[in-house]
Amino acid sequence: MIDETTGQESAVQPLRSSFERYLQDKGKGRGGDGGNYRRNAARELERFAEWAAGERGADDWTGIVPDNVDREPNFKDLDERVFREYARHLSGDRGLKQNTVQTYYRYISAWCGWCVNEGYLKAHYAQRASAMAPLPEDDGRKPGDQQAWTSEQRHELTRHVDEQARDAIETYTTLPEDTDLLDKQRARYAALKAARDRALVFVLAYTAVRVGELLRDPNDPRRRGVRWEDLSLDDGSMDVYRKKQQWDAASLPDPVISPLRSYRQLMDPPTERWPVFPTFDQRTLAELVQEELADRGEQSEAIEELRDEYARDILLALDEDIHPLSITTDGARSMLQRLTETSEVDIDHPKHDYLAPHGGRRGMGEVLVRAFGYTVAARYLDNSEEMVRERYSHIEAGELGDVATEALNEIDSLTPQPSE
What we know:
Low-confidence stretches: 1-8
CATH architecture of the largest domain: Orthogonal Bundle
CATH topology of the largest domain: hpI Integrase, Chain A
Largest sheet: 3 strands, antiparallel
Number of domains: 4
Strand order of the largest sheet: 1-2-3
Mean pLDDT: 86
Number of helices: 17
Distance between the termini: 86 Å
C-alpha cells in the first residue's frame, strides 16, 4: 500500500509516522486533540517506539532493526515475535503490577489493530496467542481504582474541612472595622479558599460524581469544570458532562447544600458563568489578570498599580469579572493530599497514602449498594447495573456468605447430635 500523504509504501514507513493520525482518531474534542485516552496512548506509543529503537530494555537490547542497518524501526520490522518480546519486556521485573502490564499492552495492541485497518500491517500481530503468552493473567482489577472512603474517613475529613472553613469565615467576618484593607483582603482570601475546599470535599464525598465530570481536564476542552449556572441548590441538582459524552443532571444531597450556599454567599460571583471551584494558583491568576486587563485596553503600569491594591489576584478577578479557570483534576488530588495530611485521617491502602477523589465516589457506591441495592446505586452512580454488580461484587459475596452461615446453622439445629 502507498500512503496518500507521503507517497511511501506503508511497510517501510517509520512507526512514529502513524502515531499522530492514530491519536487524532482516538482523541476527543475538535481535531481529536483532547482526552485522557489520547494522552495515555501517546505515552505508551512513545515508550514502545523507544524500546523498538533499542533505547529501553536490558543492556544487551539493541532494538528490532537489524544490527547492520542504520534507520528508525518501521512497519516491516514488526511481527508477532516483536510483540511477544515487548510483552516479555513489560512483564519484566520493573515493579509493574500484573493488571498495569495488561493495561500498557492494550494501548499498543489497539494501535496495532488500527494499523491493520489503515493498511500499515497485514495482520494483528499483537493479538496472536504467541505474542500475548508472556503477559501475566489479569486479576480483573483496575489499577488505582480500589480505594473507597470508609464512613469514618468521610466523617473525619468532612469534619476537618468544616472546622477549617468555619474558623476562617469567622475570622474574616469578625474583623474590627478599622482593620487595614489589605489585611481584610487576606482574611477574605483565606476564608474563600477554605470554603472552596470544604465545598469540593463535600461534593466528592456525597455526590459520587466523577472528578473528571466536576473539574477542568486540560486534555479535554469540553470538560471546563462546573459553573454556578450548572447548579440548582433549590432543586438539589447539578448539570455535569458525563463520561458517556453528554450532559446530565446529578443529585446534590442535603449534606452538600449548606457548604455550597455558604461558599456562594462568601464568593458572591459576579456572573453565573463563574467556575464553582476556581483555581487559586497565583501564577495562573496573575497571568490571566494581566492578559485580560491588557485586552481591555489598560496599560501595563496601570495594571500593576491596580494589582497592588489587592492582596490576591483572585479578589481582583472577582471585582473585575475576570473569569478564572476551574481547578484541574490534578489540582484536586493535590488539595486532597494536603487536607488528608492536616486532618490526620487514618489511611491504610497499598496504592494511596491520601483520600483520592475516586475513593469518595466508590465509598458512596458502597453505602448505596448496602442500603438500597444495585439498581438504585447504578442510577445514582451513572453506571449500568451490571458494572455496579461487578465493582461491588464483594458486598453480594459477603451477604451470600451470611445466608450460607444462616443456612448451615439451621441445618445443624435440625441434625441429631451424636451421643457421648
